[in-house]
Amino acid sequence: MLRYNATDSSEMLDYHGNFNKKVPYAKSELRFTEILEDPSLCNNMLQYRLHNERKDSTRFQKSRPQTFETLKQLVDRGVDVKLDIPQSLWDSPSLEISMLKERCEKLVSEYGEEIERWFFEHQDGTSLLDFLCRNLVLKDLPSECLDESMPSEYASSTESSDKNIKNEL
């Protein structure tokens, strides 16, 4: 109920508070606030897994690493697998993944105004990746990681993920 009221209200005012000019919900201040205050924004980083077999930025991926996938298949077949970590923690986020979440929170905190500027002024012409990462965060640093091609299994899963992010932002 409240969301419907908020959506209707946001469509009544334009960006400057003028009546009779509707602002689409997807580009409204309400939507922007909902996205940034949504705890799942950076919590989604915890869905990623570290693929130690890779050395570039593609080592962070949502699928289970091949090593753990093979070990799980062995356990499912009844093989007694001994590791330094209990099986119950195999799918838990690693330290690196937890740090990824913390970095996301720090990035949103430090660059909140720039993200807001992109949302309201630049999202139709410039990707968030270019606007925020390439032009601001990594401005004077190497940014080749942004151009790395993704493995085919990752690329297909990120296409829908990219659409979801665009819809979220």
From TrEMBL:
Pfam families noted in UniProt: DUF3456
Domain DUF3456 residue range list: 10-136
InterPro entries per UniProt: DUF3456 (IPR021852)
TM region(s), chain numbering: none
Region (Disordered): 147-169
Keyword entries, A-Z: Signal
Biased composition (Basic and acidic residues): 160-169
Protein family membership: Belongs to the canopy family.
Full protein name: DUF3456 domain-containing protein
